[in-house]
Specification:
- The protein is built from 28 helices and no strands.
- By secondary structure, the chain is mainly α.
Length: 516
Amino acid sequence: MDWLGRLAADPAQGPVTRLAAVVQRVRCAPDEIGEDVVPTAVGLLRESAHALPVRRIAPAPSRPAAPTPGVAPQIVAAFEDLDRRTRVYAPTTILLRSFHEALGARVPERTVVLAEQLSSPDPGSRLDAIRMSGELMRTWRGDHTRLLLLVADQLTTDDQEVAAEAAAVLEACHPIAAPAREALAAHIEAQRTAHGPHIWATPQALLRRSHQEAVRALARLGDARALPSLLAALDSDADAWRAIQVAGHLPQAAHELVPRLCDHLRRIDLSRRRTEMSASAILSALAVLGDPAAVVVVADMLGAAVRMGRHNITQSALKTLGGFGPAAAGAQDSIRSLTTATDAHVRPAAVAALWAVGGDLAEAMPLLLGLLDSHITFHIGDAADLLGEIGPPASIALPRLRDLLTHDYEWVRVHCAAALWEIGGEAEAPAVLDALLQVMTENPATANHVVTCLDRMGSLAAPALPLLREQLALPRRGGRFQSIDDDEELQRVGRTLIARLATPDEFAALVDDYLI
């Protein structure tokens, strides 16, 4: 350790060597990181940026926007993304990754380091820093406004590889990317002005990726300024799948998007292989947009999927029809026929759609009780969710739901506890609360489901306060998939609950501790 300290301070050594000594010392003693470590590292990083040569990023080969024959475009894109992730562009990147790993939850300090990385004159260093910025924001909680703005600043660079990566990170971080909204919109408008309205399908691979990623990021923010490029994609069928994936985030444009999405759905030939991802994505977008004008084409897709034995598409079509509610009554007979399907996923989807479309309790309850007695755990969870949606009229299910609170699988217990509350109300509160707290302690991934139910329980959820405080105090993202989406929702609901349930003094203490 002493030798590393002397090496780090030795002016006779080059800045990269001294930076390596600082990083190695931090890795050896991560609990002894002093206040001078980050400023020292930043200074050495600045020196190394001037000492190392600036090198242009080697251009990627240009490819046509047309799909690769016989391979789903989503698969092609996934492998291209994997290839990009394996590339390292700067000689200091591996060293800096080790430094960030050692700094761990110190988000403000890591942001300072990344700010310096993002100011490098070397485009490869900035590109690697953009990726590290995305990793930080996806993994750790905190105020990432400064980092988002720094990444957004990279959209205006002359290097399209860097601009594309910045846009991709902003899309991946879209739940918190609102501070970058105007930068994204300006970037898109500048590109359309410079290269024309058909830039979405430009044969220049880097420019195309830069534009498409920025459009997708802006669309995920619900900003209609992304719409012209999305419509161009749907009309030209060039990389249309990328537009379809984000179309559901623009419900205000449903009147323009839904007819085009329906046209794409009609053109899918289920007799061909590798169509499931495309069909399911369109169905998902139509479900979110919720325009009943799509009922007929979705019902037609359901019929085709059943005939072809395409169970995944059948399930997706059922979910979409269920989302239309009574407007899909014309498809009720087709839906009903699938409530006895042998496929494990189709059956519960059909039962849910039948209830959503028909609302016939006498018809739905026997089917739901049958699912509740299934040995397939997700059948139980799906049935419990639907019973909770029905509420008190489903009281016949209460005894079985109570029994299921002792199930071995925590995901069954959390769904059944939530259903118990929705159906039985205050009388079930003690058992529900006990089950929820036990489940969240046993498996933190259930936290989103737990806090959603606690939120509905009002003041009866007060005993959960210690666990909620503990959850919000964690530095690492949590929730169902530890994703930004799930974690931001978990934090939002958790803060709302604490603000409602805590005493004024407790609430003030939480504000002081930055938990609220």
